[in-house]
Structures are given as C-alpha cells and as structure tokens.
Amino acid sequence: MSHDWNSSLSSEWPPDDVRDEYLARWEIAVLTSIFLTTLIGNSLVLLALYTRRRYQRRKFTRMYFFILHLSIADLLTGLLDVLPQLAWDITFRFQGGAVLCKLIKFGQPFGLYLSSYILTVTAIDRHYAICYPFSYCGITSRRSKMMVYGAWMLAVILCIPQIFIFSYTEISPGVWECWATFYLKYGERAYITWYSIMQFLLPFIVLVYTYTRICMSIWTSSKMSGVVDLKRRNKASFSQRNRDPLISKAMINTVKQTIVVVTLYIITNIPFIGCELWATWDPKASTSPFFTGAAFTILSLLNSLTSCVNPWIYFAFNKELRTALTNFFCRKKDYSLTYGNHNVSF
C-alpha cells in the first residue's frame, strides 16, 4: 500500500510534472521482485495443499486450514496491493479514473489486514490448543472456522474508509491523481495512527501474549516431564515411550513455524509503519533529507514484504508440503507411499 498517504509523497509537484527516473526504476524493480516472489511462493503453497488433499484424501488439519487462508491472504496482497502499485509506478500518474481509484484503494489494504488477522486467530487457536487441550476438544473445528471467517469480515469493514478518503483529484492544472483528502485538521494523523494500530499494533500485542503463554506452557510441561523422569527413571522412561506426550514434537514444530512467521511479520511491517508514523507526526519530516531521499521511498514499498516470505517458511518447516509438491511435479502415481507418517501439523 505504498504511496497511499499523501505524506509519503511530496505535496508540491514541479511545473513540468517530472520524476526521478532512476529512482522510479528501482521502485519498479523492487515491486516486481516482491510481486513475483509472492505470486510464485503462495501459488506453490496452494498447489501443495491441493495435491495433499487430492491424493492423500484426507481433510485439512486445523493448521493446514490456517495456512490455506494465510496463503490466500498473501496472494491477495500481491494481486490487490503490489500489482496495482507496480502498474501505477510504471505509468507515473494514476490512469484508471474515479471508479477504479476507489476500487483499488479499497483492495490495497485488504490483504494486509486479512494476513494480520489470520496470523492473530492462528495464534489464538494454538494458544487454546496447547494451554487448554482438554477444554479445547470438541468445538475446535467450528470455533476455528468462525474466527477465520470473522477475520475476513473485519478486513472488509476496515477497508471501507478508503473509499471515502481517496478520490480521483486534480492535484495541479491538468494533472490528475488518486489522492487522499482529509477535511479535518488532524484527520490524516488520526487515520494513519488508526491503521497502524489495527493492522500492526493490535495483532502484535495478541501475538506476543499468546506465544509467550504457549512457550511458557511448553517449558513447564517439559520441566514436569523431566522431574518425573528423574524420580522414576526406568519406569517413567518406559512408560513415556509407550504413550503420546501431551505436547508432541509435531505441535512444537508447528509452534516454531508460526513463531518464525510472526517474527518476520513484525520485522517486515516496522519499516513501513515506522516511516508513515514518522512522516505524519513529525512536523519537520517534510524538510528532512531522509524524507526526500531514496531510502524513505524504498522503505515505503516494503509493507507487503511479509507476503512473499511466508510461503517459503511453510516449505522449510513442513516436509509433507514439500513431498506433495515434489510428487506433483515428478508425476508420481502412488502418493500414499510417500506420505507415511510425516504429519507435522495437528
């Protein structure tokens, strides 16, 4: 959603309406790389999920259900945010007219909101599954679906203000642009702050809380298991080998995967959110060399960077997805032999 805010651009355009073509080429290169990586990566994840379900003939586990929706959200980010911004940077000025302006601006933050809230509900789901495993049984499937569908609805609702804020405006004689207009004095600050809270800060707080509780629960469980094993070494060791632990290795692996996703989500969101808040709240920002330089422009393009990173994390942590994808491209007929007992989700 780069350049969504007028504060990200110079408000005074030169009379001949020109731009830095060297910097523009870098912008186009960065956006193209992000778009292709996002498109290819998330398409491969969706293909692997389809292949797994089609040939293994089993329903998705809850974790695969969340991965499915997160991949769709990341793919929508590439199609609705990065691709329109890439076309916009190529043409320099917005060429779509009034209706397309509002449609694009409605769609640009949608994938970003959705991805954040899918991550959030995934964390909540894992928190209940690990910290309250007995009370979690029975209603989990319905609860998980309701949380995901709620994330979709909330993302749509939060995008509605974009329709009223952005319009196809003549910013100088003969120069038209898809432009944000704030009629209240502090409207721009209020809206950017609201966006930062809803898209980043609120999910961040939930993620930190839930995964802190999850890590504490796993550590406590491991510590208790160690005490039992120390007191009853021979007997306990034998019994441990003959029953499934309350917190399995597959569960721990899934938590590790999601924590990596969340960590990169935080790292890749900070540059864009930080730049926008600084440019909006600092009265001296518009006169700063950093604001008018290339670094600020490039950083403002990285809001969707997490969407091109997530799918490769899934493949790195999930052997079953890699196997399904390998089998699809190698045209192996007997898929059932390659799956075995390699499930890593629950």
UniProtKB/TrEMBL annotation:
<feature type="transmembrane region" description="Helical">
    <location>
        <begin position="146"/>
        <end position="166"/>
    </location>
</feature>
<dbReference type="InterPro" id="IPR000276">
    <property type="entry name" value="GPCR_Rhodpsn"/>
</dbReference>
<dbReference type="GO" id="GO:0005886">
    <property type="term" value="C:plasma membrane"/>
</dbReference>
<feature type="domain" description="G-protein coupled receptors family 1 profile">
    <location>
        <begin position="41"/>
        <end position="314"/>
    </location>
</feature>
<keyword id="KW-1133">Transmembrane helix</keyword>
<keyword id="KW-0807">Transducer</keyword>
<dbReference type="InterPro" id="IPR001817">
    <property type="entry name" value="Vasoprsn_rcpt"/>
</dbReference>
<feature type="transmembrane region" description="Helical">
    <location>
        <begin position="259"/>
        <end position="281"/>
    </location>
</feature>
<protein>
    <submittedName>
        <fullName>Vasopressin V1a receptor-like isoform X2</fullName>
    </submittedName>
</protein>
<feature type="transmembrane region" description="Helical">
    <location>
        <begin position="293"/>
        <end position="317"/>
    </location>
</feature>
<keyword id="KW-0812">Transmembrane</keyword>
<feature type="transmembrane region" description="Helical">
    <location>
        <begin position="28"/>
        <end position="51"/>
    </location>
</feature>
<comment type="similarity">
    <text>Belongs to the G-protein coupled receptor 1 family. Vasopressin/oxytocin receptor subfamily.</text>
</comment>
<dbReference type="Pfam" id="PF00001">
    <property type="entry name" value="7tm_1"/>
</dbReference>
<dbReference type="GO" id="GO:0032870">
    <property type="term" value="P:cellular response to hormone stimulus"/>
</dbReference>
<dbReference type="GO" id="GO:0005000">
    <property type="term" value="F:vasopressin receptor activity"/>
</dbReference>
<dbReference type="GO" id="GO:0042277">
    <property type="term" value="F:peptide binding"/>
</dbReference>
<feature type="transmembrane region" description="Helical">
    <location>
        <begin position="106"/>
        <end position="125"/>
    </location>
</feature>
<keyword id="KW-0297">G-protein coupled receptor</keyword>
<keyword id="KW-0675">Receptor</keyword>
<dbReference type="InterPro" id="IPR017452">
    <property type="entry name" value="GPCR_Rhodpsn_7TM"/>
</dbReference>
<keyword id="KW-0472">Membrane</keyword>
<feature type="transmembrane region" description="Helical">
    <location>
        <begin position="63"/>
        <end position="86"/>
    </location>
</feature>
<keyword id="KW-0325">Glycoprotein</keyword>
<keyword id="KW-1003">Cell membrane</keyword>
<feature type="transmembrane region" description="Helical">
    <location>
        <begin position="192"/>
        <end position="212"/>
    </location>
</feature>
